[in-house]
Amino acid sequence: MMPAELSDFILKTLCQHQGCLDYKQLCLAVRRSNANGATDEILRSVLNDSTRFVMARAKSGKVLGSEPSPDTAVIVAKTALRVCPSLEEDCDSCSDLHLCRYFVNGGCKYKNKCKHTHDLDSYHNTVLLKRDGLLDLDKVELFQLLLQNDTSLLPNVTELYKLMREVWDIYWGKYILC
Question: Structural domain boundaries of the chain?
């Protein structure tokens, strides 16, 4: 397996495992894939691609150097690709995916009446996915990668806090009233 093919395989494998794997599990997956010629040296050189992978310690989360320790390293999938925050017709030569952020999160309530596209295979999106080497990822794998890299896809903390506060008040209000 050539380094580019190995890199694509590792990225896909990480996305299939919620975006990360510890170093030992990743090595095992590479060996099982019959990656001919994928020595530890080649694997480490592929993992040094900071545009696609981050090596972190499992417990402290600190970034390691170029030499992962098999006992403590977690490999995390990474991409610079983002979801466009505006409507498709508002973009001129946009380099972000044109997708509904709620669709990526797995729950757009507007479905086919949504103002944002749910078409992953549009010409614009296909060009960007091909450019970034993500065309071989299926929808679930791609969305996993986007969700862990694009902070604009995260819920609004203020709204989430208000909701949790309401639940808290309702729950504890029952006990206070009794």
Answer: 3-77, 88-157
